[in-house]
Amino acid sequence: MKLAELAVEAGKDADAYVAVVDEAATAHARWAGNALTSSGLTADTRLTVIAVTSDGSGTAAGVVTHRGAVDEDAVRAVVAAAERAARTATPAADARPLLTGDAVPPSPDWDEPAPAPAASAGGLARFAGGLAATFDRARAERRLLYGYAEQRRHTTWLASSTGLRLRHVQTAGLVDLTAKSEDGVASTWSGTGAADLGGIDPLAAYEGLDERLGWARRRVELPAGRYEVLLSPSCVADLMLRLYRAAGAKDAVDARTVFRGADGGTRIGERLTGAPLTLRSDPREPGLRCAPFVAARGSADVAQVFADTVSVFDNGVPLRPTEWIRDGVLTGLVQTRHSADLTGLPVTPQVGNLVLEGPGEGRALADLVATTRRGLLVTSLWYVRDVDPRTLLLTGLTRDGVYLVEDGEVVGEANNFRFDESPVGMLGRVTEIGRTEPALPRERDDSTPRTAMPALRVDGFTMSAVSEAT
Length: 470
Known about the structure:
Elements: H1 2-10, E1 16-32, E2 35-55, E3 58-67, H2 72-88, H3 121-128, H4 131-140, E4 143-160, E5 165-181, E6 187-194, H5 202-215, E7 219-220, E8 225-231, H6 233-245, H7 249-253, E9 278-281, E10 322-326, E11 329-330, H8 337-343, E12 353-357, H9 365-370, E13 374-378, E14 381-388, E15 393-398, E16 402-406, E17 409-414, E18 417-421, H10 423-427, E19 430-433, E20 437-439, E21 450-453, E22 456-466
Parallel strand pairs: 7-17, 8-13, 12-21
Antiparallel strand pairs: 1-2, 1-4, 2-3, 4-5, 5-6, 8-22, 9-10, 9-12, 10-11, 13-16, 14-15, 15-18, 16-17, 18-22, 19-22, 20-21
Helix pairs in contact: 1-2, 4-5
């Protein structure tokens, strides 16, 4: 809090300032071959200063970020660097007046410090308490466990010279678990996310993987082709996050993405799928809570496919429940205030979580397997990359578990494949929606929104080549 206050008060040569301070504490542990190999506690501080200048040619912003130890001298140096960057920057097309403290009430906990770094260790300690029994079970069944777990607390303060004073504390835990047969021939993976790592039972996570390793005792070689597939919630999360990251309204209007409309506008109002799927975000979603305001540390977010989904001028904009797809119809795209002015659509910034769901509770993945005549169960995806943004065509690999299902039973492990699919096109071929549950995408980073996804039954999923990956 004090760093943010100091940064917005230290500026002298710009018209306005925004400061974003991030303090993160992470407790983590790794294990391999049924034994803990390392653990630790890390702390990180990041200061971002945005200086805004205006003249006859327009409004420009200079953005400078400093990571590591931050004292008063470092704050003043970052502010001065942001001022220099603003003076040499070209006018920003997305420039809008900064929000004020009168428009956005301050956070009631603004003055509170970040939680002590040691607070992150509690959830990890509770989780680790169950690892010993899990390792013993794996040894007895001649399995090898590898993985990673972390509990993270991330506090953000956002202050501006126009009176913004906002604070948010994000807690998140995750477990990344791989199980292998003793000879290393078969392996399978699962990922779990939760606000508190202490609520995750490692033994329960292992038991699901042990069943999959049993399926792998029979190997089935299959050719490339189009298959009916059952995608696990993790797979669906990886694909829906690619859709979300490409859902910028301005990029659609500029004809750079799959969401470009035939009339030159956007595809909002168009049916994407006959399946009654709803894709939505809500900063107060139970179990997936995230920051309720925009905290933009740059107008070109490296986590995005394109740069027009976030604007430093929108810092402090309140985030509200937003539906992106409702009952199969595209109802919203990511909008900054700048893009909303261009499109005439509401301001709908990106939110830090994503939920895909169908009507009702839906069936568990095991129940979907039980009603499958013949298809592939795909449990995780890897190395997903963009091929064509105009169709959102992606390519990637299956990894650690593709299984052949016949007459309601898993009959063996299949070889891996390279796939080529568009998440938008895939939605149009969804024939059944499973139960929505918290899901951890396998391809993720610190900026990945928290997700809850169902398993999906998809017709005609393109496995374009057999992969040699094992």
